[in-house]
């Protein structure tokens, strides 16, 4: 097989393939095998017809169509591998010459990731940040446990800091229109928690059950939703219930209620241990991200727009799903952000490019390091995943080829990150 590659653009390859007679004969024999059992020939048992005899009893149009489909698929895949191309979508194939089963020449145009150049990643060293669990960390968890186990009872008096109040509230803008995300019903608010914007809880202090109040607050300049930053919002609040909160004393009895602990010291030791595990996992993920970012920053490559656009689309799909859970429409979200649909896409573009670049960096390194996922590794991971589910439908999903490939990809990524962590920390 002769293969020639031209690049009319940095991210487009035109692959020209000229097949040999030997290759075409092997493909033809393979395709003829597809017809075994489908075509009955007098005097021969089903599936045992010699190829030369079988060919004479097959519709030639069907044979040529199957042959071309198989040949183009096989030869294109071989050509891409031999030239170490990284196509990102299906090729646009045009047959230039076809003499049935003797000669085949075709051209395939395809978008590719090209000019991938990695730094000497083995020499990139990153120090691991020291991990520590402070007494303050442990106390924060203890306080959270204390609040969860607190006793609450209704009181008929003005609300004060430390109380839990239940409120209905609705925010409107300067034109009197509802503000998305600034409303709630039967919402429990612990006064003094500072969960709301500055000034909100201060206005609730002093209110009694079944009392209404209206007040206007300015959202902070650094508020997460740009459309609300520095904006005045008027809140109409109804306080429905005031509850006094009695936090339990943190003693040995408290520790026994929380879990299998005899003393507060045992409880604190367990909290410190669990925090250590959690923080270590977070630190490991952060360290891996830091390594990939460092390598990506020194890597260069050309990524096709079609792939970047596809990544942006996936990111926006995830974002839309999250908005649906929050009861917000895409149009409302764009309005809050003060962006058009096109501006939102452009805003996502750098992140999309960074994600793609990181994935190709990992793929290149896995190949350079000759890392592979062995069949037994995949099976072990599948069995572990299956043990977590009882739903037959979910178990069937895990066996689908595309999901098996996805799981294998995750294992390969883990192996690559482990290898890189070893280099970076040595």
Overview of this protein structure:
There is one protein chain. This protein has 426 residues and is α+β, with helices and mostly antiparallel strands. Helix content is 48%, strand content 21%. It has helices at 21-35, 51-56, 60-82, 135-148, 200-204, 252-258, 264-297, 305-325, 330-337, 341-368, 375-386, 392-398, 401-425; strands at 2-9, 12-18, 92-99, 103-111, 114-117, 151-154, 164-172, 178-190, 211-218, 232-246, 300-302. The strands form three sheets. Strands 6, 7, 8, 9 and 10 form a five-stranded antiparallel β-sheet that branches. A four-stranded antiparallel β-sheet has the order 1-2-4-3, with helices on one face. A two-stranded antiparallel ribbon has the order 5-11. The protein is elongated. The two termini are 45 Å apart.
Helix content: 40-55%
Specify Rg, calculated over alpha carbons: 32 Å
- The low-confidence parts are none
Task: Give the class-level CATH name of the domain at 2-112.
Answer: Alpha Beta
Annotated CATH topology of the domain at 2-112: Alpha-Beta Plaits
CATH superfamily of the domain at 2-112: Trigger factor ribosome-binding domain
Discrete helix count = 13
Shape: elongated
Q: CATH architecture of the domain at 2-112, please?
A: 2-Layer Sandwich
The percent range for strand residues is 15-25%
What distance separates the N and C termini?
45 Å
> What is the quaternary state of this protein?
single chain
Write the SSE topology:
Elements: E1 2-9, E2 12-18, H1 21-35, H2 51-56, H3 60-82, E3 92-99, E4 103-111, E5 114-117, H4 135-148, E6 151-154, E7 164-172, E8 178-190, H5 200-204, E9 211-218, E10 232-246, H6 252-258, H7 264-297, E11 300-302, H8 305-325, H9 330-337, H10 341-368, H11 375-386, H12 392-398, H13 401-425
Antiparallel strand pairs: 1-2, 2-4, 3-4, 5-11, 6-10, 7-8, 7-10, 9-10
Helix pairs in contact: 1-3, 4-7, 6-7, 7-10, 7-13, 8-10, 10-13, 11-13
